Amino acid sequence: MLGSDEARAIHAEHPPIDLHADTLMWSRWTGYDLHKAHEPPLPLAAFGGHVDLPRMREGGMSAQFFGLVSLPLADRVKGMARIVHEQIDALEAQMTRKPGAIRLVRKADEVRATQQAGEIAALLGIEGAHALEGNLDNIPIFARRGVRYVGLLHFTANEAGFPAFGKGRSDEAGLTNWGLELVQSCEDNGVLVDLSHVNKQGFLDACRVARKPPIVSHTGVLGAFEHWRNIDDAQLRAVSDKGGVIGVMFCPRYVGGDGLEPVVKHLKHIVDVVGEEHAALGSDWDGFIVPTKALKDPRGLPLLTDAMLAAGFTRVAVGKILHDNVMRVLDEA
User: Fold this and answer.
1) Where residue 213 falls among pLDDT bands split at 50, 70, 90?
2) I need a surface site. Which of 80, 145, 186, 281 has the fewest CB within 10 A?
3) What is the CATH architecture of 5-332?
């Protein structure tokens, strides 16, 4: 088992929660089995094969947010909601096949209950509001099926606004009126607003109107590495001012190099700018990335904990980053 005894002890008290993995996309496409221990099939662990229940248990995880992806570069809207429903169906089928291994939850108390029962908690988040097909009535429908966050954008402009990068990109335009209504509707239905992939003006617009904590499920930060995918200090402060959290990705392309140090550097920048209450993990496992070698799957999470401790993070701060901050947001939402 990887990691020090101290890291394992911290994980026992604050079992890691990851805000974004696209694993259910692979379950829908290929029948990828969450119950089976896998090794990434491609060199450098490229693209997929990162997450399954045995490796999550070995890494000491309590919960995984699964991103629900629907054709991020598509112009058409019809059929996007069905693709999301089919990914939820895939999770439910795996839950039925082996009861007591993974449980779909919505609330922080349910995460705690699954941990006590020896189960892994699954939470759901939609990546890109194009999956709503322009209809806000889809939000309560998805919420009833367990969706806990909606990302406003992915790689294509949609009814809500404009991406930070991709088709229809605009650096000046903010959220549309429909996008502002979407933020309110999400909050009314107990669904978190995810600001990953949103252009800066739309991001700030969402934070301005938010009444509940927003999240950035998977990102890097510009203060640690210059890249279009990363957000700046003003965006960090806008999220923290509303009590939200920012999940740091495990992708060398976006964090500025392989190894644990770049990931820790991004987490440290968040802590330095807005405090230890607002940093979290947002791996982007199974999301067509080449992950950091030591974090190619959940087994490496104790190594990240050791790296944070070595960088001077307190045990309290590490516990917040691994677990407590996300639980607080779930409670408040």
Assistant:
1) very high
2) 145
3) Alpha-Beta Barrel (3.20)
Q: One-letter amino acid identity for 244? A: G
Q: Provide the pLDDT for residue 257.
A: 95
Task: Please give the Cα distance from 203 to 195 (Å, whole number).
Answer: 6
**Residues 81-91: tens digit of each pLDDT:** 999 999 999 99
CB-based contact 198:153 (threshold 8 Å): yes
| Cα(243)–Cα(192) distance, integer angstroms | 12
**Strand (E) or helix (H) holding 64:** strand 63-69
CA dist 222 and 202 (Å) reads: 17
Q: Shortest CA distance to 218 belongs to which of 167, 185, 253? A: 253
136: which 2 tokens?
């806000």
Decide if 314 contacts 7 (C-beta within 8 A).
no
Give me the mean pLDDT over the 221-231 stretch.
96
Write the CA distances from 92 to 136, 138, 175, integer angstroms: 24, 19, 34
The residue assigned the tokens 């947002």 is 282
- Mean pLDDT over 107-112 rounds to 96
pLDDT over threshold 70, residue 315: yes
* Token reading at 288: 């067509």
DSSP string, 166-177: SBT--SS----H
Q: DSSP H helical segments within the chain, as ranges?
A: 5-13, 23-30, 53-58, 80-97, 108-116, 138-144, 177-188, 200-209, 233-241, 252-255, 260-274, 301-310, 315-319, 325-332
Mean pLDDT of the chain: 95
Closest CA to 122 of 163, 81, 156, 93: 93
Mean pLDDT of 35-59: 94
For 215, phi then psi, to 5°, come to -130, 160
In the predicted model, is pLDDT for residue 74 greater than 80? no
